Amino acid sequence: MTEPSAQAQAVPCLALRGITKTYPSVVANDGIDLDVAVGEIHAILGENGAGKSTLVKIIYGVVRADAGQMRWDGRPVTVGSPGEARRLGIGMVFQHFSLFETLTVAENISLAVPGSLRELSGRIARVSERYGLPVDPRRPVHALSVGERQRVEIVRCLLQEPRLLILDEPTSVLPPQAVEKLFETLARLAGEGVSILYISHKLQEIQSLCHTATVLRGGRVVGVADPRRASAEELARLMIGRDLPAAAHPEAAAEREERLVVSGLTLPADEPFGTMLRDVSLVLHGGEIVGIAGVSGNGQKELMAALSGERLVEPAEAVRLCGAAAGRLGPRARRTRGLAFVPEERLGRGAVPPVTLAENALLTAAHLDMVRSGFVQTDKTRAFAERCIREFDVKAAGADASAQSLSGGNLQKYLVGRELLQRPTVLLVSQPTWGLAVGASAFIRKRLVEL
Ligand SMILES: Nc1ncnc2c1ncn2[C@@H]1O[C@H](COP(=O)(O)OP(=O)(O)O)[C@@H](O)[C@H]1O
Ligand SMILES: [Mg+2]
């Protein structure tokens, strides 16, 4: 890794003082100070909701601050729009992409960068070659993977020769090899004097890439550290404000009973851009946790549907649950045989937003004596919901609170709790900590490991 260049001692490229932004329900940025040196890779580290995206949107002119100053090369500036930001030399790659699917790479870029398509294609090829960002200017964006789309966005920024490049959680969509490539590109840019603001909540990334880290919590700067010297524990403590609960690593249990066996599972895609499952096999023993890794969009969703019973599979023996063929059983029949699952989408799939937590318990736990002769046993249902709230530390007004009144983390704890309290023999969890703060994630991991 290269040190920020000697010019770093001089005037910072970007200096923020007292940046404040209040939304009706929250102070998203509360008096933020930040200095980014020339050629520095500067991390903004913080949990979900810490205010990272708000801060960089202010810098890029997408959001206007209520108070505070911004200096660019030591001169006070106000950035009223992304166009003004680009004229100063600020480029940004957003957390959510902003490309038109039906246009080609070159056409997309031509919307932001002047020049004929032909001339632009040549420049795209040169920049992509120079920085190790392979993109084909002629391909339509809809045919590109997420990693390729991100490269297009980065190339588009680089064509404008920015002096500050902002990337908001760029690796959340990338497989590990692509992360390495991206880091090489960023290190190279920094070596050429480009400053980089790198937003992430992933400690290891920041430790391997960044020269400085500004840590945000609840909209405030709670620390500025050299991430290469600070330990991951110190950074995590700054980020969440307390120690991380220790993640016990489970001994694989001695029991070797086969609970879930998938053999040669093949399932056609069920939608035009869906993924086909080809000859998938796996065995899950009692007491074992099997991880399904892979970049989203490579069949995880389809596999979950086939395992949960949302999609039936042929032959029935392709999915065996506790020794019995289960491929033709629907979700309810699989549940009564000991399967429980937490789907990826919390609202809609996992829970019905407007109804109460108690009623949501009925959705998957009804077979636990909650319905008798067609009547809902209200007291049993409420007792179950209350126990779940208590045991899984769910912050909710009570069993009568609606699912949609809970924050994402608390709803997820409730949904995981609802499944775990049923003492399943096989539990499927899809992205259980997706979008959750580190504290809530660690809690859920711990409860899964304890099962
Ligand atoms: N447009 C908006 N309207 C209302 N609240 C917002 C808006 N944008 C962000 N917030 C709130 O501001 C806080 C910080 O959000 P954000 O900057 O997106 O955090 P981060 O990027 O660190 O996850 C959150 O509580 C979020 O809900
Ligand atoms: Mg964000």
Structure in a nutshell:
The protein contains 14 helices and 18 strands. The protein has 451 residues and is α/β, with parallel strands linked by helices. A hairpin with a 2-residue loop joins strand 13 (319-321) and strand 14.
Strand runs, count: 18
CATH architectural label of the largest domain: 3-Layer(aba) Sandwich
Briefly note the structural class of the backbone: alpha/beta
Strand count, sense and closure of the main sheet?
Answer: 6 strands, mixed
Write down the overall mean pLDDT: 85
CATH superfamily caption of the largest domain: P-loop containing nucleotide triphosphate hydrolases
**Total count of domains:** 3
Ligand inventory: adenosine-5'-diphosphate, magnesium ion
CATH topology of the largest domain: Rossmann fold
Can you count the helices? 14
Overall, the morphology is globular
Helix content: 25-40%
> What is the CATH C-level name of the largest domain?
Alpha Beta
Strand percent estimate: 15-25%
Distance between the termini: 42 Å
Strand arrangement, major sheet: 6-7-8-3-9-10
Radius of gyration from the CA trace? 25 Å
Low-confidence spans: pLDDT under 50, at least 5 residues? none
